[in-house]
Specification:
single chain, 3 helices, elongated, mainly alpha
């Protein structure tokens, strides 16, 4: 029956079958650590002994900037704050 029908009707059936699948992907709008992925990831910290290429440094910066924007990560405080 399905294969013998008009192509436009066949397309409609495909959409009708896909709609329940698409509505299953909706969210409640609440953002939590589980939905943002912040529960398992942390900022990348670089030590003075690390030898970075330019590409690696850009990737670390992009990762940390995304974490700051999405997860609220704060920059590191200075290791030895200057004394007044």
């Amino acid at each position: 029956m399905f294969f013998n029908c008009h192509p436009a009707a066949r397309r409609r059936w495909r959409w009708l079958c896909l709609i329940p699948l698409l509505t299953a992907c909706t969210t409640t709008g609440r953002v939590t650590e589980a939905t943002t992925g912040c529960a398992w990831t942390r900022p990348i910290r670089v030590s003075r002994q690390d030898q970075l290429t330019d590409l690696t440094a850009r990737q670390i910066l992009a990762h940390n900037e995304a974490g700051r924007r999405l997860c609220g990560w704060q920059p590191n405080p200075p290791a030895n704050p200057p004394h007044p």
